[in-house]
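Agenda item 2: zinc ion complex prediction
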Amino acid sequence: MMDDEPIRFRNYYRCDDCDVEWSDDWSCCCDDECPSCGRDYTPTHSEDLEEETF
Ligand SMILES: [Zn+2]
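Presented output:
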């Protein structure tokens, strides 16, 4: 049984079309939508947040 999965990674994204960069926290390295055009992007890179405990 799984409760809420802990936030594990901070993923960074970039949309070249909108010239926009954003980041989001996830329990895994997954795609996110551009906040401007809604297209799916894979992370340009990810930070491990293991040091932060929730
Ligand atoms: Zn975009």
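Discussion summary: Residues 9-48 form one domain.
Owner for follow-up: CH.
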